[in-house]
Hints:
The structure holds two protein chains of two kinds.
Chain A: H1 2-23, E1 68-70, H2 80-84, E2 90-96, E3 102-103, E4 109-110, E5 112-120, H3 129-133, E6 139-141, E7 156-158, H4 164-195
Antiparallel strand pairs in A: 1-6, 2-5, 3-4, 5-7
Chain B: H1 2-43, H2 59-69, H3 80-97, H4 115-137, H5 140-171, H6 176-182, E1 192-193, E2 197-198, H7 209-212, H8 215-230, H9 242-245, H10 255-280, E3 290-291, E4 294-295, H11 296-299, H12 303-325, H13 333-362
Antiparallel strand pairs in B: 1-2, 3-4
Helix pairs in contact in B: 1-2, 1-10, 2-10, 3-4, 3-10, 4-5, 5-8, 5-13, 8-10, 8-13, 10-12
Amino acid sequence: MFRNIIKELKTAGVGMGLTLKHLFATKKRRVMDTVKSDNYFEQQGKGTNTIQYPSQELPVPEVGRYQLFVEIDDCIVCDLCAKVCPVDCIEIDSIKSPDLIGLTSDGSPKRLYAAKFDIDMAKCMYCGLCTIVCPTECITMTSEYDVSVQELDLLTYQFSDMPAEVADEKRRIFEEAQAAKQAAKLAALKKKEEGL
Amino acid sequence: MQPKQNYLNFYLIYIAVGLGLFGFSAVFALFGVYAERKVSAFIQDRLGPTETGKFGLLQTVADIVKLLQKELITPAAADKLLFALAPFIIFIAVYLGFAVMPWGPGLVPVSLNLGLFYFFAIVSIETLGILMAGWGSNNKYSMLGAMRSVAQVISYEIPAGFALISVVMIAQTLDLQQIATQQGILSTETTKFLGFLDVSHIGGILSWNIFRAPHLMVAFVIYFIASLAECNRAPFDIPEAESELVAGFHTEYTGLRFGFVFLAEYSMMFLVSMLGVILFLGAWNTPLPNIGVVQLANWTTGWGWGILWVSVKALALVGVQMWIRWTLPRFRVDQLMDLCWKVLTPLAFACMVISGLWRLLLM
Lengths: 196, 363
């Protein structure tokens, strides 16, 4: 019995020593170090581990897997991102243009207007597939992760800033162009038939 | 007119002392909870409260303000009278224990020649309050918690009682103020360090009870362990074991009533620590001995010093209680009873026997 008592006192003593060590190690605060740093795991267990979030932040990679962002001027509205998205959180409405609109920063020709380019971040599962398939690399994930909003609508990011009237105008121009093309086609056909 | 004036003064002093002790226990509970949260946080590598006030110092003040505003909910099936009375009985039992506690030479609310006996009797009433709370709540968790608490407190009063008796046998008095006086330079009888060296005029740490008779060190450890169980503190907190019983006997309490239960718990911590200090660790006597012409003990004895020494020592013991709480895991019910009846009780008996022999042979 006495051996047990001594053993238990000893083990309790070890435990008490351990907690005492931690009690007096609190002067040392956690260093705000990125996960890439060599002693990221070394410093754990030495001093307090709390990150006082709004006033302290752990550095994150510049291109993390957080919020999606679209550089709309570089987008060719190919719709690949919307097609690959596993949760269908990207909604794109495109308008064809009768002629070349312009070039993106990497030189790809743009032939479609984006009347609507909405990403619902509430649905997004942060897989990053859209950023992989994008041919012009205009859709990226940013390092911003603190996005609490007051209303659910605010989680739907609208990247296209084309007003409805402008979109209608573009549609009309394309339809007119199509109609003109059709007319020209018909005329050509007629001419061909007449010629025969 | 003169006698009436005297009576008035007499009662005014009593009321002032009562209010002072209540204020002390309330302030102690507030900062005790703050200290507990900080200590637990630091031990677990966290920071604890930091936002409310400098270093989070006002956190518990904010908590108590919130608690005071809360609705007093009485469960429909509760025994209303018992339920409403229990927190106050729990608190008053603890609060009345302060009545016999000496704070310094000549500074004691009531000098009772049965002081220790009174203390033990009045503090036991807390158990009754806990049982009332558990029964009155009509909640299975509360009832289980209360039953566990009663079983535990009654069991642990036995080793604690015998540890205290072994001090009383050395001191030959139940008056806490006399026990306190014996352990320093103000003693009227000779005090012997380890039973042979006369330290009546040297005082200091050498004349504390645990050094007057070294087996009282064992008695002190027994008393300290038993006192943890009596104030339901970890590792003996099975009456309120959060992981099993929600919150034990105070599950159904809200607002001010819950506040009183909490106040009682923290006052009890201080009270049992203070009793341990008075009986074993030299009460309000200074730890510094007289060495030749350097009369440290004479310089640091007095009622102001007394309050300082007794508070510092008791707070140190409260600190040890917190440290233990955040280190050791909770006992199982059978282990708890095992420790009490098979280890502490025989050891306490042995201490008592040694005390008797010590008194007869060495003093």
